[in-house]
Amino acid sequence: MIIDSQRVTLDTKSAHVHGHGVGDHLYVHEHSIVHDLPAQVKVVAAISFIFIVVLTPVHAVWAFALYLTLMFLVVGLAKLHFPLVLRRMLIEIPFVIFAVLMPFFGSAPRIEVLGISLSEAGLWAAFGILAKGTIGVVTSITLAATTRARDLLQGLEAIRVPAVLIQIATFMLRYSAVVTNDLARMKVARESRGFSATGIKHWKVLAHSAGALFIRSYERGERVHLAMLARGYSGTIIDLYKPNVVRRDWLIALILPVLAILIMTIAWVTL
User: Fold this and answer.
1) From CA 137, how far away is CA 147, in angstroms rounded?
2) d(CA 9, CA 13)
3) Cβ neighbours of residue 173 under 8 Å, at least 6 residues apart?
4) At 177, is the secondary structure helix, strand, or coil?
5) Which of 131, 133, 101, 130 has the alpha carbon at shortest distance from 118?
6) Do residues 29 and 19 lie in contact, with contact meaning Cβ atoms separated by under 8 Å?
């Protein structure tokens, strides 16, 4: 996005001096070796690590224990508080519920556990979902907590993620707070008029509110896009802050996926 260079400079300084910016509610401001790594390096390491975990045979229980240990070592290096990470892991609850149900509805053969007939294949599938999902969630939480949203988008651009996806993510981060504030104001307006959603009969009002919010957001997006085009926007977001990536950064970040490859190889060989 071609905009006034002075404004970009001020926005960049504000984000990196004060330690926060648009969409940075997940970021934890600390000084650690993980925080200091460039975003693109961390993204490549995290994605590679998750793919390796997914490719590991589910019967290698010890391998997943080592993966989780490695991730919590990274959490420690990043100086993240473990209670914070555990609270953010609650997002995994729907997957946990799904995994718990799988042994009851899986196929034969079945085994008895505390007098309950469970599917052996379902048990292994449930373990695979829990193990791989948990490790993936911890990896994502660590990446989000150690990388500012602005830097993350810039890192995705550096590893050649399609520009359209980066633009969508950029505007989503920028205007999610605006839409959330609109939603909060509409809620206050309804309650100030004595409205309280207590049953199905109030769903119609909530549906009308959601429709009005959608139309308002759509129209705002049209106006913002036209304003950007009028200022020379050509589909590229220009950022004056460019992190310097050196070989040492890659060597540090790739330690995690390299160790994971070693663990996965042993798991397949000993299977």
Assistant:
1) 15
2) 6
3) 22, 23, 149, 153
4) helix
5) 101
6) yes
Contacts (Cβ under 8 Å, ≥6 apart) of 39: 147, 148, 151, 152, 154, 155, 156, 158, 243
Q: Which two tokens mark 22?
A: 């648009």
185 in helix, strand or coil?
Answer: helix
CA 260/CA 48 separation, integer angstroms: 9
Maximum pairwise Cα distance, the chain: 71
Question: Is residue 109 reached through a cis peptide bond, with omega within 30 degrees of 0 on the bond before it?
Answer: yes
Per-residue pLDDT tens digits of the chain, which is 271 residues long = 333 434 333 344 444 444 455 556 788 888 889 998 988 999 999 999 999 999 999 999 999 999 999 999 999 999 999 899 999 998 888 888 888 888 777 677 777 777 777 787 888 888 899 999 999 999 999 999 999 888 888 888 888 888 888 888 888 877 877 888 888 888 888 888 888 777 787 888 888 888 988 888 888 888 888 888 898 877 666 665 666 777 888 898 899 999 999 999 999 998 7
**Dihedral-angle region of residue 235 (phi above 0 means left; psi in -120 to 50 means alpha; beta otherwise):** left
197 touches 205 (CB < 8 A): yes
Nearest to 78 by CA among 263, 205, 235, 256: 256
Q: What's the half-sphere exposure (Cβ side, CA atoms, 13 Å) at 70? A: 25
Pairing of strands 110-113, 116-119: antiparallel
**Are the beta carbons of 12 and 240 closer than 8 angstroms?**
yes
Residue 270 gets which letter from DSSP?
T
